[in-house]
Amino acid sequence: MITFGIMSLNLESENSYINEIACHAESLSMEVFRFIPSEINPHTLLVKGRKFNPVTKNWRDCEAPIPTIVYDRCFYGEDEHSKQCLPIVTWLKSRSDIIFLGYGLPNKLELYQVLKNTPLSSYLPQTQAVLDVDSVLSELTAKHKVILKPINGSQGYGIYYLKRNEKTIHVKTEKQKRIISRIFPNEAKLVQWLKQLLKQRNYLLQPYLELSNKEHQPFDIRTLLQKNERGQWKEQGRGVRIGSTGGILSNLAAGGSVITFKEWITSLKPSKGEYIQQELDYIFDILPSTLEKNFMPLFEIGIDIGIAKDGSIWILDINSKPGRKVLLFTNPELKDTLYTKPLLYGKHLFETGPTERKVYYEKTLSH
């Protein structure tokens, strides 16, 4: 029986998703083992983890060889455990005897620098690294409204909106589903705050895009693309995330809500709806091959698309470890499909052999 390994930084993370995958595995003659990279013994190459029992529907602790097929669901932070696991995962990805479903994408800045030289460049917000406080002040003076994002951020954490008024500077963010605003009376006060912020992590800077609807709610289109059991890219579905009135995020983690893509697109004028549909189809058609041409092989991509008030279309984020909440809410009939897709693609890789993917090792490995 093929062992399908699911790797995460915590054995309790994404429990409902991983449990569903495990429940669907037996019908495909596969067993599921979940583990943490730091639990690998470098001498014996055995790893402590949990194996799923399809009869009792429970997990039992055990020690086993590193699975041949690995589904990477590690979400890294700034903590010590993340820093400990990163080099271990890089080592695993370099091994020729282990097949990863997907090898991940680099940070947001590296992604931008590569994609800006492709046919997708016109869909990318202008992006630059924040080198110092002066670079933020310069852009704020020129644009009046800017967005600060962590280079390695996810789920909308740590995003700040800055707006220069005549005398003051308005800063806004969202934490624990609440909008937090602060007014700085002068630039000197803002500089003090920025210096502290930039010490914590690396940021990138983008112009603020008017991506809100008539109710002043930020919104975006979340799409999930995955490879099928033959290794071909297919779109699984789309949904529209809507944030709080006056907010800057549409993420569900920030308190956003969801409607179906059909409900949203049919609310537009037919000509506008058709134009957006064609643009989205073009982006989703060429993005996967563009990414795999420049980076390592992938299994799935979550893509966030923003539609500005002037009708312009923007790629806001590309995630190689996407969630499924939006699709499960808007397309509940996809439930079984979403839980079996990783297993089917893993089986495809196992049966066709890893040779086709190993040529990518000469590229830079990235998490």
From TrEMBL:
SUPFAM superfamilies: Glutathione synthetase ATP-binding domain-like (SSF56059)
Family matches, as InterPro entries: YheC/D
Domain of life: Bacteria
Pfam family membership, one: ATPgrasp_YheCD
Record's protein name: ATP-grasp domain-containing protein
Lineage: Bacteria, Bacillati, Bacillota, Bacilli, Bacillales
